[in-house]
Amino acid sequence: MNSSQTHLFLRPVSGLVRVAGFWDVFIYNLGIISIGLGAIYTQRFGPAYYLNGSIPLATLVAAAALCFVVLGFLAWTIAIPRSGGIYVFLSRAGFPSFGFAASFVETLSWLFYAALAAKLIASAVFVPSFFLAFGGTAEATTFVSGKSGQFVIGSALLLLSAVLLIRGTRVFFAIQKLVFLLAVVGTAALLWVLSSPNTSEVLAKNITPLLRLGGITDIASLLERAKAAGWLMSHGPISIAATIALSVWPVLPLIGAAFSIAIGGEIRHSVRNQTAGMGCSLAVATLVFVAIAVLSAASLGNDVQGASAFLSDQNALNLGGEVKLDPTIVLLSILGTDSHVVRLAILVGFFAWIWFWVPGLLAYGQRVILAWALDRLVPAWFGQLHNRFGTPYGAIITVALVGEAFLALITWTEYFATLVFIVAGTLAWAIALGFGAVLPYARRTLFERTNLAVYGRRGRLLMVGACGSGALAMCWIIMILCRDPLAIGDPAKGFGTIAVCFAVGYGHFRITVWRRRRSGVDVSRAFDEIPVE
Asked: Is the pLDDT assigned to residue 264 strictly greater than 90?
């Protein structure tokens, strides 16, 4: 057998088309970052639990760490510009069984958060909307505040996302650009409210009637009740330790700056557009997060945000029935203005930002499943393309159903309602970056066929340096994540779930390879080739 026959390509072409440009990559990554979600979580937990921590400085620390992560994945995407996320990287790095298992865990993690985002839209956007439209005790508000209402809304969003993805990449990116415009308008309205000189007075006037429903007379008594319940108000100089601990909250959304690794095979001029798209999304998100933090501290007040969030977590702001006052920046900002137009713009903007997570994370998952199918690790149906739209509808239906299952579990079980899956994703990414640092030497023959090999020794050093520094940054992120019970939840539950999922993925890979080999197909040969898109 000659050399031309030793590297037979066993993996079929995906059929995906390179239609994504800079704006598509930028919007996709910025959408997964989700300025709305990042602001909700950072502004909610920062003032409430991190005494003397600085949100602006914590955001800059997080952005600095993510710069190294982005550079690491840029090196991977330059070397192997293919769709499928870290699965493609890990399987070609010489660890296909481990890579598939890690990718399986990571994919479940992102699908879990797609379902969580669908539910969060109901709680963080629909509930305040119904609050304003129908009042705090109306039947409609009670419905959207309850489990059934949020499940119905979340299910509808997952279904809509699946339909959108099946319609094709061009339609997906076109809709995302429209949603991005709504998000930008909503963010501009939010910043306008936060920068207005009378926001604090308007907030005090509008929030007092809601506080009275919970038995609190005004903002002053809100602060006193929170202090009596054990909340500590920030005062004095900034604490570096608290700021570093607080950085875990902006870190989590900013990870989204590297998510375009999922669609690498569909990006035109991949090196240029991936570099610009990842870098610009990280820079823009960081600037907006800092602006929101500075302006909200001056207008809404970190003390009001912290005290109300603390009391809400203590179930001390119930307004009757299942309706609970959840003082996210969404609610506080719309109560900081009397303009119904501005309120609507803010709500639509937050809806748009959170929406990006739903189809965006489903898209990541279905691209990974498509890559599995092309490598014959799952049945061919998962990689089958729609006759009209040319999209892998089998994979899309699968990720939508998994998301629906997660939504039901999050809604109606205590275990999944409090499960924090983010450690799975961060661990998988750290491993992928670590393997990238050794790829040029551990798999020299394969590396010589990558796009970085044309740069010779500089290409190898670029891969090692970028992926190595990215892996160290991810290890630091994992460390601060694991040291924060507020961010990680119950460690035993989280790591136990990860271990079970990893074992399932690893077992599936081994059984599939064995079965394929018995039928005369050596799946392992595909991992010696860079996949054709």
From this structure: no
Q: What sign does the CA torsion over 318, 324, 326, 331 have?
A: negative
CATH 1.10.10.60 correct for 16-517: no
C-alpha torsion 63→451→103→379, nearest 10: 150
Q: How confident is the model at residue 133 (pLDDT cuts 50, 70, 90)?
A: low
Instruction: Name the E strands within 317-376.
Output: 318-320, 323-324
DSSP assignment of 175-192 equals HHHHHHHHHHHHHHHHHH
pTM: 0.87
CA-nearest of 238, 314, 283 to 46 is 238
Mean pLDDT of 175-188: 93
Q: Are strands 323-324 and 318-320 parallel, antiparallel or unpaired?
A: antiparallel
Predicted pLDDT at 13 = 45
Task: Decide: 78 and 270 in contact? Cβ < 8 Å.
Answer: yes
DSSP 49-117: HSTT--HHHHHHHHHHHHHHHHHHHHHHHHHS--BSTHHHHHHHTT-HHHHHHHHHHHHHHHHHHHHHH
| Helix (H), strand (E) counts: the chain | 25, 2
- % of residues, the chain, pLDDT over 90: 44
| Distance (Å, whole) CA 433 – CA 271 | 18
Mean model confidence pLDDT for the chain: 85
Categorize the per-residue pLDDT at 299 as very low, low, confident or very high, splitting at 50, 70 and 90: very high
Domain limits, the chain: 16-517
Provide the pLDDT for residue 445.
Answer: 83
Q: Is-contact 470 434, C-beta < 8 A?
A: no
Q: Which residues pair with 20 in a beta bridge?
A: 267
Q: Are 358 and 157 in contact (CB under 8 A)?
A: yes
Residues 6+ positions from 450 with CB-CB distance below 8 Å: 79, 80, 530
| Residue carrying the six token digits 């969404």 | 330
